């Protein structure tokens, strides 16, 4: 199952809105087939793993997610398994899709295949945390990311922010963008920094996330870089009803809300469009309203060994803030990793 999870991981950023899935076929103690779901719309992990596995009647199949029992873009995997009839299927977890849950296992058992569930389930859930959230709530999994100085500034008082962190951290962010469906920023970041928000990797193929910009009051100008890119991904601008944004590939009309636009409504709409992951890249005002709206699942804050200072310099989370410490947003499972000269702090927002 460890091998199956590692294979599944290779599909990261390419399978959305589907899960990442890996599969290994073992016969007489030897791996005789393996595969993973490489891209949405392409064959499932089980099909790839069984392709060259030969006779599997005495084999055990390890798969990171319950085999599908429904017709999607490809035929149900349980039909193929029922036909090939392995001795045993070991799955890490049940498919959280309420329309599927348990039916795949039932079909396998009905075909006389032994089924075991729950091996490395925790790891499998972690791997597909975004898919699980999207399929069970309709909302994308949201990461708030920023680069700040040790004193919490994401730019200087003049708005200069190039660069807060070193090269290794910036490369890390491009790898992260490569895995995300959408990237979200506020209008001020676009106006001040004029970023392109694309994925630029030194090695091979990269994929740009869809760019989503918040613009509540027609502040954006169409001469900004995000509107003139050679990118396979479009630039969407979220606006209140009746407002427009020249240069946008598409407008998303969202009701007004605290801080500008109602970010819950925006997430619901992005989820409906099969966006399963959103990376919020600031600035501080956007982060503040994302936390206030309760849409953030995880934080990834890079901390640079620098002190910037300045009352007017933008901090990672602006807005009004809370009155009492007891109201603070709590984080859990905090992890700290050195990345070049900087540190990456990752944690989950405690919603309990
Ligand atoms: N180091 C980093 O990681 C990093 C990353 C990004 C940005 N930055 C820096 O951050 C600074 C900009 O940050 P900022 O806080 O001034 O602005 P921001 O968050 O980039 O943009 C805020 C603007 O977005 C619009 N908006 C619409 N709906 C919103 C909502 N629900 N919540 C929040 N904003 C909404 C509002 O403008 P309208 O009312 O006009 O629509 C608002 O003023 C820049 O200096 C940039 O260099 C640093």
* H/I helix tally: 10
The structure class reads alpha/beta
Shape call: elongated
The stretches of 5 or more residues where confidence is low (pLDDT under 50) are: none
The set of bound ligands, ions and cofactors reads: NADP nicotinamide-adenine-dinucleotide phosphate
- Terminus-to-terminus distance: 30 Å
Strand content: 15-25%
Helix content: 10-25%
* Order of the strands making up the biggest sheet: 10-9-8-7-13-6-14-16-15
Let me know the number of strands.
Answer: 16
Q: How is this fold's topology laid out?
A:
Elements (H helix, E strand, L loop, with lengths): L1 H8 L12 E6 L2 E7 L8 H6 L9 E4 L13 H8 L3 E4 L11 H8 L3 E4 L3 H7 L1 H9 L3 E9 L17 H11 L4 E5 H7 L16 E5 L20 E5 L10 E4 L2 E2 L2 E2 L1 H10 L4 E4 L3 H10 L4 E7 L26 E9 L2 E8 L3
Parallel strand pairs: 3-4, 4-5, 6-13, 6-14, 7-8, 7-13, 8-9, 9-10
Antiparallel strand pairs: 1-2, 1-3, 11-12, 14-16, 15-16
Bound molecules: NADP nicotinamide-adenine-dinucleotide phosphate (NAP).
The site of NADP nicotinamide-adenine-dinucleotide phosphate (NAP) has 33 residues, from strand 6, strand 7, helix 8, strand 12 and helix 10.
Any overview of this molecule?
The chain has 352 residues and is an alpha/beta fold. It has ten helices and 16 strands. The protein has helices at residues 2-9, 45-50, 77-84, 103-110, 121-127, 129-137, 167-177, 187-193, 263-272, 284-293, and strands at 22-27, 30-36, 60-63, 88-91, 114-117, 141-149, 182-186, 210-214, 235-239, 250-253, 256-257, 260-261, 277-280, 298-304, 331-339, 342-349. The strands form three sheets. A nine-stranded mixed sheet has the order 10-9-8-7-13-6-14-16-15. A hairpin with a 2-residue loop joins strand 11 (256-257) and strand 12 (260-261). Helix 3 (77-84) runs parallel beside helix 4. The radius of gyration is 22 Å and the shape is elongated. The mean pLDDT is 96.
């Amino acid at each position: 199952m460890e091998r199956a999870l590692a294979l599944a991981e290779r599909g990261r950023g390419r399978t959305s809105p589907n899960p990442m899935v890996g599969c290994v076929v073992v016969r007489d103690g030897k791996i005789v087939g393996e595969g993973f779901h490489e891209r949405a719309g392409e064959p499932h992990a089980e099909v790839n793993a069984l392709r060259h596995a030969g006779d599997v009647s005495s084999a055990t199949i390890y798969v990171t997610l319950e085999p599908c029992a429904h017709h999607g873009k490809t035929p149900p995997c349980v039909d193929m398994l029922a036909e090939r009839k392995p001795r045993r299927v070991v799955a890490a977890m049940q498919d959280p899709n309420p329309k599927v849950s348990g039916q795949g296992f039932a079909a396998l058992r009905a075909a006389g295949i032994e089924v075991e569930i729950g091996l490395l389930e925790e790891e499998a859930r972690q791997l597909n945390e975004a898919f699980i959230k999207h399929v069970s709530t309709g909302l994308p999994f949201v990461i708030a990311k920023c680069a700040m100085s040790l004193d919490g500034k994401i730019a200087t008082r003049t708005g200069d922010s190039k660069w807060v962190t070193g090269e290794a951290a910036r490369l890390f962010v491009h790898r992260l963008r490569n895995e995300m469906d959408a990237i979200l920023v506020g209008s001020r970041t676009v106006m001040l920094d004029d970023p392109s928000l694309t994925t630029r990797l030194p090695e091979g193929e990269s994929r740009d996330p869809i760019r989503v910009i918040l613009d509540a009051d027609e502040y954006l100008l169409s001469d900004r870089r995000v509107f003139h890119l050679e990118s396979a991904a479009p630039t969407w601008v979220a606006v209140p009803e009746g407002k427009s944004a020249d240069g946008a590939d598409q407008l998303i009309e969202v009701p007004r809300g605290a801080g500008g636009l109602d970010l819950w409504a925006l997430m619901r709409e992005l989820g409906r469009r099969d966006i399963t992951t959103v990376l919020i890249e600031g600035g501080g005002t956007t982060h503040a309203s994302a936390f206030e709206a309760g849409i953030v699942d995880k934080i990834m804050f890079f901390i640079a060994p620098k002190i910037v200072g300045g009352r007017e310099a933008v901090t990672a989370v602006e807005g009004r803030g809370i009155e009492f410490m007891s109201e603070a947003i709590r984080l859990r499972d905090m992890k700290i990793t050195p990345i070049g000269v900087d540190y990456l702090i990752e944690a989950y927002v405690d919603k309990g």
